[in-house]
Each structure stands twice: as structure tokens, then as C-alpha cells.
Amino acid sequence: MSLLGRFISRRFTGTSASALTKRKRFYKIVDVISEETQGKKLYKVTLDGRMLKTQGGNVLQIESEPLALAIAEEWASQEQQLHMGHMRLTGLAFTAQDNPLHLTRESITAKILEYLHGDTVLFWNSESEKLSRYQEQYWKPVIDTANEGLGTSLKPCTNLFETDVVSPSDARIVEKWLMSHNFWALTGMQYAVESVKSVLLPYSVVTFKLQAEDAVHRAMLEQKSQAETWGSVEWAHGVEEEELTTRLAAAALFVYFNSNAVTKKTL
Q1: Within the chain, where are the H helices?
Q2: Which of 12, 18, 146, 174 is the most exposed place for a label (fewest CB within 10 A)?
Q3: What pLDDT is attached to residue 137?
Q4: Which pLDDT score, from 0 to 100, does residue 261 have?
Q5: Euclidean distance between CA atoms 19 and 117, whole angstroms
Q6: Contact of 102 with 59, CB cutoff 8 Å
Q7: What structural domains does the chain harbor?
Q8: DSSP tag of 139
Q9: What average pLDDT does the structure give for the chain?
Q10: Residue 111 has pLDDT above 80, yes or no
Q11: Is 231 left (phi over 0), alpha (psi -120 to 50) or beta?
């Protein structure tokens, strides 16, 4: 099965949700309809024939057919109660359409670039021999993937106080790549980046070089190394890892679907 297939088959539900956010399921049939608006085909999700609306009260209008189908599946998979916090794609779509913070492609890109300058995989720990080995094994390939795919010259740094880890030319290259995406895709990318405190890890996921699970493993490398040495509460660690994997996988799909608006048989 392809990486995309594994993304699609993965459930996008989190591990827990507050009872205060739950509502009883009030619909039976979930469907997707399409409409032509000013020469553009838009997709809408319906619940018993009624249009799904965002938290801002707007009818959700989606340019990507596969995204509309995936959001419809989130609603169809709900059982007796609605777990709104678990419907990641729905939440991202609501945020992208309502845009409550009045963001632009430029402002989202600038925010993502802030994470690049403090990217998790660019700052290596030279004091722990074990962690250094892990970083060489798991982080270096991520840096290499970005350099090969983007044409950058990114290198790891062992000085936590270094302020010029990413050169201006490399930052411009990453900025250009980010700006090649539309607003909705950038909304998903920002969610991914903020989840794992890295730009390079989500880059590897959205370009299908890493699975979300593998990227999260790399994002939590330091915690895992410390747990091997000092021990940890295993169940709590597992919950955090599952939560991050869920977020990153959903964000990667959101980016992909908003960059590829038409369904294909190979999906």
C-alpha cells in the first residue's frame, strides 16, 4: 500500500475529548454535493440534506473533492455522540474558511519560518553520546531530504544559543516553497509544524518521504532517549505520541488534499 493509502486508512481520532464538547449525533445521512460557483466547482457536506456550517455560521465550501469526502467520512463515522475535537480535518477546514485571525498566506508563511530557525532536528545535543548517535541516525536523513528536495544547504548545530543556524538564502528557498501552496494548504502546514515544533519533519511527511508515525518518533527523540535512561510513565508517553501522530497525519492529508483537488482511481 502507498504512503497516501496508509494515511487515508489511518483513523483520525484523538485519544480523548472533554465531555463538555460532545453532542448527540443528530443526523442519519451524510453526503457530498457539488455546485458551480462563478465557474468554479465547490463541494459541500450535507447532514440529512442540510448544509454543514462552520463555527462562524458559514456554509462550508471546499474546492478539493477528496477533502470533502474525507470530512464527510469524519461525520459519518461518529456514533451516538459527536467528538468535535477528534474531527481534525473538519476543524482545519472550519479554521481555513472562517479565518478568525484574519491571516494571509504571507503571515502564515512568516510564522512557519520562525519555527524553521528553531527547528527541532537542526539543534543537536553533543553532551550525550547515545542521543548523538540517535540524532545522526534519525535526524540527519530528515535534513538530507530537505536539502535534496529544496536545494538548501541546511546543517545541524550543537550550540543551542546559535542564532544563524539557517542562512538567509536557505530561508528564502523554504519561503518560496511554502508560498507555492494555497491558503488552505498553508493552514494545514502550520498545524503540522506547530504540532512537532519542526518544519523539516512535516516537509518529509507531506512529500511522502516519512510516515507520520516515523516523523513523530523523530520529534520525540530526546524524550525517548531520556526515558531509556531514567524511565517514564509508559502509558502517558504513548498517549502523547498517539496524539501527535494523529495531528500530523491529519495535517499532512489536509495539505495534500488542498494541493490535489481531484480524486483519482489510484487513491
Answers
A1: 3-9, 65-76, 88-98, 105-116, 129-134, 140-150, 168-179, 183-196, 200-206, 212-219, 221-230, 234-259
A2: 18
A3: 97
A4: 62
A5: 38
A6: no
A7: 3-98 (3.30.2180.10), 105-259 (1.10.3580.10)
A8: I
A9: 88
A10: yes
A11: left
